[in-house]
Amino acid sequence: MSNRTNYSSGSPWEDIVGYSRAVKVGNTIEVTGTVADHEGQLLGGNDPYLQTKYSLDKIKATLESAGASIEDVVRTRMFVTNIDDWEAIGKAHQEVFGEIKPCTTMVEVSRLIDDKYLVEIEATAIINQ
Fold this sequence. Notes:
Number of strands: 8
Helix content: 25-40%
Shape: globular
Mean pLDDT: 95
Strand content: 25-35%
Low-confidence stretches: none
Strand order of the largest sheet: 1-2-3-8-6-7
Radius of gyration: 14 Å
Largest sheet: 6 strands, mixed
Order of helices and strands: EHEEEEHEHEE
Distance between the termini: 17 Å
């Protein structure tokens, strides 16, 4: 794929696990699962709303580094450890995507890679070239 660009966050986990922060092929950008973490520090504490906000902020920054914007998002996927937190997580998602209204999925999972994470979010964006 000659039109493929991988974007890195610099996280050591990218090489350990073998993934990219985002991958752009043509006009499509896929952003990998994103949690509320910055350089090993949990952002938002035990608050699902704040963890969602921080995760979406990271997704926004990743998209911008790839030449896209949050308005280009057509799908999000939210993996949550407690579906009872759906209102707080949904509120944070709505504050970012209320006018954009991408397709979305929210599913409860038994756990994420670290028990301190309450939500992990993926995004797909399509940009005009």
